[in-house]
Amino acid sequence: MTDPGDRKEEFLALLRPHRDSLEAFARRHLRDRQAAEDVLQESAAAAFGSFDRFQPGTNFRAWMFAFVARTALHWNRRSGREATLALFPEPAAGDLPEALALEEAYEGLLADPSRIPAAIEGSLAGSLASLSDGERSVLLLRAIGDLKYREIADILGCPLGTVMGSLSRARSKMRRRLADAAAETRPARSAARPADGGAR
Known about the structure:
By secondary structure, the protein is mainly alpha-helical. The chain has helices at about 5-15, 20-30, 35-50, 60-80, 95-110, 120-130, 135-145, 150-155, 160-185, 190. It is built from 10 helices and no strands.
């Protein structure tokens, strides 16, 4: 019989490498530090309670993100901020190629928030806040969780097309907001470029 202490250590050893990304997901999703901490604690307790059902060798990261994402959505419902993912219509078939085409172009920016200039951090937070719970969940699971479309669909219990459409809409909203902020903070090119265009 497995010692409970050993089982706990095994769980914690698997959890530690993903703690920061799980915390970042919860903070970005809930926009409330205390709520994020509560969600993380609740998620960890639920995951440990179900740890005997985790299959060794499978994706522990995706397994943990499932607990955190669902707990965050439930927290929003309990707080009166109802999640609307299930209300999203399936995208038209013609919209799916566009969602796939955007994947590579925006993956670097979304997967590495440190590349976003500090000057538009407020706009980034505002953009995330303006998304519905469903759009924000999909975007953050992809950007911070680095999860595949199918994994996100399994976590949120929705069709693959809904995930792709939600991600496309969320990115479109973020791009518009960030583009506006970048335009407001961009220095005048004429002030930074020599009259001869910098040719040497």
